[in-house]
Amino acid sequence: MAAAPNKPPTVAQKDAPMERGLQVAPGPHLSSTGLTTRRLMLDVVLALVPVFAMAFYLFRWFAVLQVGICVVSCMVVDAITSLWRGSRPSLHDASAIVTGVILGLSLPWSAPWYVGVVASVVAIGFGKAVFGGLGQNIFNPAMVGRAFVMISFASSLGATAYVRPEASLEILTQATPLTAAKELSGSIPELWALFVGNSNGSLGETSVLACLVGGLYLCLRRSAVWQIPVSLLVSAAVVAGIANLLMPETPLTVLGHLTSGALVFSAFFIATDPVSSPLNTRGQVIFGAGIGALVVVIRLFSNYPEGVVFAVLLMNAVVPLINRVTIPEPLGGLPADA
Known about the structure:
Blueprint: H1 11-15, H2 37-47, H3 49-59, H4 61-84, H5 95-105, H6 113-125, H7 141-152, H8 177-183, H9 191-196, H10 208-220, H11 227-246, H12 254-259, H13 263-269, H14 281-301, H15 308-317, H16 319-325
Helix pairs in contact: 2-5, 2-10, 3-4, 3-10, 4-5, 4-6, 5-6, 5-7, 6-7, 7-15, 10-13, 11-13, 11-14, 14-15
């Protein structure tokens, strides 16, 4: 039987909608229904339990008050901004709670109540809502709020800036290790005290051990990528080692840099934010290494004893560029005319 000759399509055939048998969409094409935003955020909250427990042990109810103010404020602002945008409040995903806990733990025990409220408003309102909400922000919201109050309320954010009458714990009147090192006059605690957690500072930065326990939980649960904290800590150690060789008078050694301040806390709980960090492994290594190097540089050469906040925000700003230059090669290689 001879094949029918090809006939041009009629007008009706041209106007008829085409049936699509194949849908083309960008990856990923495989996903796990068990890995939700809520589960990811709850993992972060659970990982922060050891950090908060140590903060409560050292600072008692001051820690509860500071973290509580930030959590409640972040939840209220998140609900208001969601309604303002015409969408339902997304409190069920626990992202506002995570922002509030991290923000509260990044503040010293002595910060007045209004500092936590202002930081929360800026973190959610300007660090998250103005970009379109969860998943759209380019900067870590908690660090946006922390940077704003660090500049606006500098005199109120010193670890001993406001000693309340009921503050009878001896640790509350000590200078932070980084402040003591900056002034070259204070007594820097021993490395074991810094590692376990027996020194003054922001609530979440006092115990490296607690941060490591929570951070390892996040990595084992795959709620955080291990490449970022590892590259961050290695980079900080390398730059600190070079600084020790070039400036032997620097009171902080390599281990002193690693165990002081919020370096380890930021490595696991701030830098690993999946929204404001790079998408692929090479980019994550570059991102973490940049934060680690900047933290040490800011500590050594700026007027601020700690450099985590600005280091994270600076590297957040270049994440789009990092993603662009670390695009992975597609399977099979690039086209010949690429």
